[in-house]
Amino acid sequence: MTDSGPRLVSSPAEMQAETAAMRLQARTIGFVPTMGALHDGHMSLVRRARTENDAVVVSIFVNPTQFGPGEDFDAYPRDRAADLEKCASEGVDLVFAPGGGDMYPEGHCTTVDVLRLTDNLCGLSRPGHFRGVATVVLKLLNIVQPHRAYFGEKDYQQFLVVKRMVRDLFIPVEIVPCELFRDRDGLAMSSRNNYLSAEERVDALVLKEALDHFRRRVEEGELSAVTLMGEMAELIESVPSTQIDYVAIVDADTLEDLSTIKGRVLAALAVMVGDTRLIDNTVVEV
Ligand code: PAF
To answer: Has this prediction a pTM greater than 0.90?
Structure first.
């Protein structure tokens, strides 16, 4: 870090040279990949990386290949100055902010597909999304070559996909899951919360209410996934501005649908609130 904040690097080759020098000095590197519009959820990952490593690298890149046609790539919030300020205040050493051509050079034709884990949930409703995520995360890991990389569990499926890719491809990095971070009112932190009107923000709290309901009913002994999904859907649908993309109850390790609550179970939601698609989840162990 410099006096005026983290060093900003946009070239992959320069970034590789920077972190190679750190590794030569036996400094451990913690990496937080982001698409920018940094919020307290991101910063909780940065703080954790700060405590567990000698140096912290944050990447900021709105990755076009993980957005489908008609999704919000163009509208995705971008605020470089605010992001850099937040990184400076948390002692980030390097910010990697490449351009599209840096990450996808002319003629690029290599992608990564993580199978099976991407057949359900967001993989079903956003075809191609996880190919874009896995491909860009592998590129970022090869560029930064960190010891540890930090992923929030709000994007639970993304975390599992990245963890499996790292295992399957023998990538020498530890993937560290970080607990989902909620705002004071309970809404899961997301850069997309910026799109919500004041009214929609209140409506969006129904996602957390549905997940709380799920936990409560499981504690009471309700073990039928169909019943629980129906009750969650009913709660969400009672708010007129919402439209359900999916309400799912799946095995928390394989993401396969469950009919009975047993073992580690993930309840996951994707819901449109107005024009904004929000996701949230919770894991229970029975
Ligand atoms: O979670 C995100 O912000 C993105 O999916 C990631 C991991 C930075 C890849 O573009």
So the answer is: yes
